[in-house]
Amino acid sequence: MVEWITTRGLTDYAQAEAFxxxxxDAIHRGEADECIWLIEHPPLYxxxxxxxxxxxxxPDRFPVxxxxxxxxxxxxxxxxxxxxxxxxxxxxxxxxxxxxxxLENWVIAALAExxxxxxxxxxxxxxxxxxxxxxxxxxxxxxxxxxxxxxIRLRKWVSFHGISVNVEPDLSHFNGIVPxxxxxxxxxxxxxxxxxxxxxxxxxxxxxxxxxxxxxxxP
Length: 219
Prior knowledge:
By secondary structure, the chain is an alpha/beta fold. The protein is built from three helices and eleven strands, in the order E-H-E-E-E-E-E-H-E-E-E-E-E-H. The chain is globular and about 55 Å long.
């Protein structure tokens, strides 16, 4: 069983981390069900285990939270759906790479519900969309923008942290960091792509596509 929790309003980041750690420990002990927690945060930056301080270009803009999830600098804020995944990866074959791939496929499947083609790129974390409405880049290639980020941590084979999908955040808030250390590409959202999508619409898509993308991919 996977329990889905949706929290309205904005959730303090430190409180969210405390909840995730406690729930992950309880899952490991067999005292709680797996959990997916859908929330939004107030504007903030998080620094993963691979974050380079040079990529924090405006350190005084928003609070910066150091975290032990994988990845580099990421922005969280209103209008962005964060899905924290507290799942037993041990029951999914003890295969971290496959688990991350499943999470990526989950985001791609959810975006497809809105006819958005999300794609993975080698050497770039997250999910990307090709922007045919923008000029070609310096190499004559189509522009690409990031629409979703991913960063997880495992403790005793239980995951926490997770994914974030840009629904309608203030995209200028990403200017205080180099998102995921990538300078040559931009950031977008579903609304920025011209889609009148609400947070509730995204929640429905995430729930609809989760089981086929993650849960049923057993060894």
